[in-house]
Amino acid sequence: MEIKTIQSEEEKLIGKNVFLTTLDAVFNWARGNSLWPLTFGLACCAIEVMAAGGPKYDFSRFGYEVWRPSPRHADLMIVAGTITKKMQPLVLRLYEQMAEPKYVIAMGSCAISGGPFVDSYHVVPGANTFLPVDVYIPGCPPRPEALLYGWLELKRKIQNPRVVKK
Ligand code: SF4
């Protein structure tokens, strides 16, 4: 009778301390919590990205403070600003040099659709015309809080791949 009690205590402890998962789920959990953004900006929305990097918004609490100066060290591109036709091949080159798996956030009206300059002869009508955009953040410009919200949506997508498939 006493032995039975000990076993049930052990089972209770195992139930509280052991959990099973897949390797993919562990990788996605780690990826979602350690995105390394490329230090990069195209126009006025980039000023909001810089503001977001300050202590007021404290992105470090999510594990996202490691801004990388080299695309080979980064796995997140935040397209912040107007994409001109002159800059588009350079943005694409940066994206191609980034580490896999990599993600793209289109921040602001210009990056989403060309914004107020969409009718101009020299502006690309959105990052999605040449990059696989994961999250769109509307606004002109979006505030740092919006960037943070979009970033956390990206984390949710990475950690729940079924959301992405749907
Ligand atoms: S969306 Fe507005 S704030 Fe952002 S780059 Fe375009 S014009 Fe500037």
UniProtKB/TrEMBL annotation:
Stated EC number for the protein is 7.1.1.-
One GO term (biological process) = aerobic respiration
Q: Where in the cell is it found?
A: Cell membrane
All copies of domain NADH:ubiquinone oxidoreductase-like 20kDa subunit, residue ranges: 44-153
Its catalytic activity? a quinone + NADH + 5 H(+)(in) = a quinol + NAD(+) + 4 H(+)(out)
Q: What is its main location?
A: membrane
EC category name? translocase
Q: Which keywords appear in this protein's UniProt record, sorted alphabetically? A: 4Fe-4S, Cell membrane, Iron, Iron-sulfur, Membrane, Metal-binding, NAD, Quinone, Translocase, Transport
This protein's membrane topology, according to the annotation, is: Peripheral membrane protein
Per the entry, the cofactor note is: Binds 1 [4Fe-4S] cluster.
Which Gene Ontology terms cover its molecular function? 4 iron, 4 sulfur cluster binding; iron ion binding; NADH dehydrogenase (quinone) (non-electrogenic) activity; NADH dehydrogenase (ubiquinone) activity; quinone binding
One GO cellular component term: plasma membrane
Q: Which Gene3D superfamilies match?
A: 3.40.50.12280
Pfam families named among the record's database cross-references: Oxidored_q6 (PF01058)
| Origin: domain of life | Bacteria
For activity, the cofactor(s) needed are: [4Fe-4S] cluster
Tell me the residue numbers annotated for binding [4Fe-4S] cluster. C44, C45, C110, C140
HAMAP family (alphabetical): NDH1_NuoB
Q: Which family does it belong to?
A: Belongs to the complex I 20 kDa subunit family.
Quaternary structure, per UniProt, is:
NDH-1 is composed of 14 different subunits. Subunits NuoB, C, D, E, F, and G constitute the peripheral sector of the complex.
Role, per record: NDH-1 shuttles electrons from NADH, via FMN and iron-sulfur (Fe-S) centers, to quinones in the respiratory chain. The immediate electron acceptor for the enzyme in this species is believed to be a menaquinone. Couples the redox reaction to proton translocation (for every two electrons transferred, four hydrogen ions are translocated across the cytoplasmic membrane), and thus conserves the redox energy in a proton gradient.
Matching entries from NCBIfam families are given as: nuoB_fam, PRK06411.1
Give the protein name, as stated in the record: NADH-quinone oxidoreductase subunit B
Origin organism is Carboxydothermus islandicus
Which gene holds the coding sequence for this protein? Answer: nuoB
